[in-house]
Amino acid sequence: MNIRPMKNILSLITVFFFLTPLKAQTIEGKVYDAHSKEALPGVFVYLNGTSVSTSSDSNGNFRLVVVDRIRTPLVFNLLGYEPLIIENPFEYPEKSFFLQEKTVTLQETVIVADRFSRDQKIKAFKEQFLGDGRAGKSCAILNEEDLVIKYDPVENRLTAFSINPLIIKNDYLAYLVTFDLHRFSIQYTRYTLSKPYIKQLSFTGTSSFVDENPFNLKIAKRRDEKYFQSRQYFWKNLVANTLEKANLKIYNGHKQTEPGRHFIITDTLHHSLLCIKPDANLNRIRNNVIDTTAFGIITVLYNNRLSSDIVFMTGQVSIDTFGNIDAVDKIRFTGTMGKQRIGDMLPGNYTPIRPLPLRQ
User: Fold this and answer.
1) Residue pLDDT, tens place only, 151-209
2) Contact indicator for 184, 125 with CB cutoff of 8 Å
3) CA-CA-CA-CA dihedral for 178, 180, 186, 191, to nearest 10
4) First-to-last CA distance in the chain?
5) What is the predicted pLDDT for the residue at 112?
6) Alpha-carbon separation of residue 250 from 41, 310, 327, 332, 356 (angstroms)
């Protein structure tokens, strides 16, 4: 009888309960209707992009306990109410939270005819929202009917948003993801839905993860593989000065370099501040043209084979202990990291369970 998987499971459980009390952080309070001031039960409360969530009880009270601080907003969601987002929940002094009822306004609807069916537009949306890799293709949106999607043939733009949060079942990574899609846009260079003509992609929203298979070693291996290729993994090792150990290399142009030549890293209690040195001389050439809007561009090579470019549109970035950054709208990625989509996402508080992969 093979008992190795059970040993691994028990080891994981032991580590989890050993770590939890060491750095535990608590967020608690009470949720009210902003108009009536009555307590609201059943409000979904979560730290954006993580597996940390709860619901308010019958008296509107909630309590979240996390292992360590994570740089992400606190989100309140309840059907019929506007979402409430608290940007710095660990520093937020109030313990009372008020939700506003959604107001239904009748607006004139302008229907612009296009030559694409809803199925064609949904397909294009899924490829760029979920991703067209193995993980993305394994995902299913369980409430597609809540997706409002349209194509503007004048601007060659596909846009979408969700009436209710999208429920996404990711079979490859075994997560059930709730994603409240606020805005989604694909700008094409011509009147088409073809991928080669995508000029720009952007989307915003908040998300929460539920682990549907926490003790499956095959799933854990898949997650770790995604983690070791993730943006969080890079940032975490960059500020810790452990790039070599993590099988990561950085390049300035075509020359391999070291973080100390270009960055000043200052550690604080809960995060690190990464600043580009005034004399950093970072590469700014993109597509054979100097990008005058960029502070600098570095190339990241993982395991000597997966390449990504990181474009700094800001001179400083704050990074928490998990590798999450504050300047998400001011850092751009291409290559391996740039292709990552919702299907490739892990919770922002994810911690790998196995050692680093061997260098190849």
Assistant:
1) 999 999 999 999 999 999 999 999 999 999 999 999 999 999 999 999 999 999 999 99
2) yes
3) 100
4) 34
5) 72
6) 49, 10, 20, 16, 18
**3 state SS for 237-254:** HHHHCCCCCCCEEEEECC
Distance CA 319, CA 274 (A): 8
- Give the model's pLDDT for residue 71: 87
At 27, which amino acid appears? I
Burial of residue 339 (CB within 10 Å: 0-12, 13-18, 19+) is middle
Q: pTM for the complete prediction?
A: 0.85
Nearest one of 132, 147, 140 to 184, comparing CA atoms: 147
Task: Determine the Cα–Cα distance for residues 360 and 357; give it in Å rounded to an integer.
Answer: 9
Q: Which of 277, 259, 279, 273 is nearest to 319 (CA)?
A: 273
Angstrom distance (rounded) from CA 154 to CA 202: 19
pLDDT tens-digit profile of 85-109?
A: 999 999 999 999 999 998 865 445 5
Give residues with Cβ within 8 angstroms of 210, minimum separation 6: 51, 53, 175, 176, 177, 178
217: tokens are 């070693």
Q: Which one, of 147, 112, 114, lies nearest residue 129 by Cα?
A: 147
Q: Long-range contacts: 248-254, Cβ < 8 Å, 24+?
A: 248/300, 248/301, 248/302, 249/300, 249/301, 249/304, 250/298, 250/299, 250/300, 250/301, 251/298, 251/299, 251/300, 251/301, 252/281, 252/282, 252/283, 252/298, 252/299, 253/283, 253/285, 253/299
- Tokens at 211, concatenated: 């682990």
